[in-house]
Write a structure and sequence with these properties.
It is globular and about 70 Å long. Helices cover 37% and strands 16% of the residues. The chain contains 17 helices and 14 strands.
Length: 443
């Protein structure tokens, strides 16, 4: 039984979404091929597999997968095609229209084994496990993927570390309106056993990893489990650094744990701030306010933990003045070096299944679903905002290798029609290099 697992893009990381199901399928006796198209050319041999499954964890990955799915369907019409991951059920109708027979959402490993077993036995019908199963995950199989050193690295000044990736939990207890996790997990999350996490970290350390990203949507969904993981990793792998993602409200609620994160090797915490506008934050149901963000920044700074905010910079409720205020707040909070420039460009995505479509003031602004872009497109009532969004995106796209301060100043000047004030001497000099992953896309 030949199974091919294909990834198109996972933020520059070695794909956990291939390595984990590959381990399950191999344990079941399957012949598994993994293909990461972000690092490898298309291999026509995968089209000879009996089952070809595409991991769709995010919007960009799904858009890139669509032409590949069509290509595999042409090369091997007999292959059974499957799509799995967060964006598979969101785009089920489109995926089925291009030849995908089976669509799986979260906690997919056991269903992939059941599906592959059924294909091997000649079964034509398949029904996924009901609800959201609780799986006893096993260590991922990474030997079938390109070497870890070929993926995103951690840059810290002149130093560079090979960066690995693992997950200590999946799903999320929260239901932010714009989040693609919500339609699949519905406010639930699942933990990964600590022994499995430790084994996966060990495998990546053996490949040269000096830093690990924990990709949990919110590392503090299960705070006790999270701390057991980082304490255990710190004991087993002295000197290994890591980063995590934590909601603003959890940074405040568990501020007493922030020093311990630093002591166990945490270099930075990513947090989905999204906006400094309380009106926007309420619409997104983020669960925090502007003042909460300011407090979280101060708490992290006091604990010696770097906070790396992410934003949805352009929304239907953003104004030109609001964008300028966002930049001013980033400056005032001394976050310029901690914000990846791509975060200054991101536009709100209204995907299939998104709870954003419940908002009455947004419905009138949405166009019909665009099967090429996989979104409900929207236009801002003020065309200046849409022009600014395009101009900022083009500026950042042209200068991807520029320093963060340099690029921030260029964006600020653009947003102020060429008349932005120059940064003060204290802003321009004496800054410490912040650690960051060198492929910071976040959608």
């Amino acid at each position: 039984m030949r199974v091919a697992l294909i990834a198109t893009y996972e933020l520059g990381r070695q794909p956990f979404g291939l390595a984990s199901p590959a381990a399950w399928l191999r344990r079941a006796g399957m012949d598994v091929t993994c293909l990461d198209l972000s690092r490898q050319p298309f291999d026509a041999r995968v089209a000879g597999a009996d089952l070809v499954a595409f991991h769709l964890p995010m919007h960009t990955a799904t858009r890139l997968a669509v032409p590949v799915i069509r290509r595999v369907a042409r090369l091997n019409p007999a292959a059974r095609l499957c799509a799995y991951g967060l964006y598979a059920p969101l785009n089920a109708e489109l995926l089925r229209s291009i030849g995908v027979e089976h669509v799986l959402g979260g906690e997919f490993e056991a269903d992939l084994v059941r599906l592959a077993t059924g294909v091997a036995d000649g079964a034509t019908d398949f029904v996924p496990l009901p609800g959201l199963p609780r799986l006893d995950l096993i260590p991922p199989w990474r030997a079938g993927l390109p070497p870890l050193g070929g993926y995103a690295t951690l840059q810290h000044g002149a130093a560079r570390k090979v960066a690995g990736y693992t997950e200590a939990s999946r799903g999320c207890k929260h239901v932010c309106r714009h989040c693609p996790i919500v339609p699949v997990y519905g406010g639930r999350f699942r933990v990964v056993g600590t022994d499995t996490v430790f084994a996966d970290v060990a495998a990546q350390v053996e490949q040269g990893a000096g830093h690990i990203t924990f990709g949990d949507p919110d590392f503090f969904n299960g705070v006790g489990h999270a701390m057991r993981v980082v304490e255990g990793v710190a004991r087993r792998f002295p000197g290994l650094t890591y980063d995590v993602t934590i909601k603003v409200e959890h940074l405040i609620a568990h501020a007493d744990l922030l020093p311990r994160l630093r002591e166990t090797g945490c270099l930075f915490v990513t947090s989905a701030v999204e906006s400094f506008d309380d009106v926007v934050l309420r619409r997104l149901e983020k669960g925090h306010t502007r003042e909460d963000t300011i407090r979280a920044v101060a708490l992290c700074r006091a604990a010696g933990v770097l906070l790396a905010p992410t934003f949805v910079a352009f929304t239907p409720w953003m104004t030109v003045d609001g964008y300028r205020r966002m930049l001013a707040e980033i400056e005032r909070l001394d976050l310029v070096e901690q914000v990846a420039p791509i975060q200054l460009t991101l536009r709100l995505l209204v995907t299939a299944g998104s709870r954003l479509r419940e908002l009455e003031d947004l419905k009138a602004r949405l166009g019909p679903f665009d099967p090429q872009r996989l979104v409900y497109p929207w236009r801002h009532p003020d065309p200046r905002v849409d022009r600014l969004a395009e101009d900022v995106r083009a500026l950042v796209g042209r200068r991807l290798t520029a320093g963060r301060r340099e690029l921030f100043d260029a964006v600020r000047t653009l947003a102020h029609d060429g008349h932005a004030p120059a940064p003060s001497e204290s802003d321009a000099a004496g800054r410490t290099e912040v650690p960051y992953l060198n492929e910071p896309w976040y959608c």
